[in-house]
Amino acid sequence: VTAKTKTEATEWSGWAASSGLTPSLPMPIFLGMDLRGHLDLLLLGTLRQTGPAHGYALIAGLRERSLGAFDLPEGTVYPALHRLERDGLVSSEWDTTAPRRRRVYQLTPAGAAALAAKHREWRTFARGVQAIVGRSAVEGLG
Amino acid sequence: MSEVDRYLDEMFDRLAGTGAAGRRALAEAEDHLRAAVADGLARNLTAQQAEHDAVARFGPPATIARQLRRAHGGARLNPAFSGAWLLAGLGLAWLGAVYLATAASFAVILRMHPDSLPTCSANVNRVCTAAVPVMQSAVAGLVVVLLGGIVLLGRRLARRSAGLAAAARRLPLLAATLFTLAGLALFAETFVLPGVRRFAPATAGFSLVPQGPGLRMTLIASVLGMAAALVTAAWGRTQARRPRYPQ
Lengths: 142, 247
What we know:
The structure holds 2 protein chains of 2 kinds.
Chain A: H1 3-19, E1 29-30, E2 33-34, H2 39-50, E3 53-54, H3 55-65, H4 77-86, E4 90-95, E5 102-107, H5 109-141
Antiparallel strand pairs in A: 1-2, 3-5, 4-5
Helix pairs in contact in A: 2-3, 2-5
Chain B: H1 3-14, H2 19-42, H3 47-58, H4 61-71, H5 79-112, H6 131-161, H7 171-192, H8 215-241
């Protein structure tokens, strides 16, 4: 854990306390795991499922598709989207047909390829974890 | 002012200098927050509660702004660097003003009492009249003020186009403290420690009075230091009065 992460964690916890947030919201963490490393995969995956979407709809889609498990601090999604766009994995444009001007994001071909690669990495990782944790759980039962 | 507006104002401050990327992020944040408030109202929340929930779920503006700066590659130019840059520019402007004020002061005396100032009798091989050190001080002042202006202008350009962060909100307080300390030290040099000269200013050796290391200049530097402290303190007070989120 870096000092920067600690600083941000302190900010989040202070913010949560002052804002009356529930403890489940202060950091992009799920069951003790820091989700930030997986945020790109989650966003790219959600964009593939939803199609072109603006930030608010994307966050709602992420929350719904994870059955509420990934309830991220919503503002953190925009820096991630900007970074993905800088890297050419998503593209965006203003949608002026809505009552309010909105930035709509969509997956690029490079983003689709990156998503496939990340998906493979994730499956390998999940299989490895399952192989160890699953076996330990079985041994523990025995 | 609504809670959402206060939040957006705070974010605007935090994103200062990020140009088009910051403007876009701010527009997205506003759209997001307005949509979240509308959803809250649709769930029968009060307007106040809907706004509070919307900004609470969005996250602290400082963190979001820092992540946005990082996403756009501006993280290296952080507020501490920006503050040091600003202090350097202010310091140079102050020093230049000291030289110019000293030159102006002696120019007035020279005009009123042409024989009251010494000539540079030590420099027998050079043309040296009382006007020469006055001119030297004026030229030095102009050069240093120009340098300070270049430093401050460069910082402004960096803020606009290179993603330089805004200085910390406490910077005016730090500047006021530094100017106060400088003013007190120079005052002590002039009146309290006339024989010690431990804190001889940069003017030492640049005598405008007989056998003295620029006492008038030291006094002017002290007075201008105090004046600069008052100005920066007033600036800090103005900054502190601006509404912030959360309050």
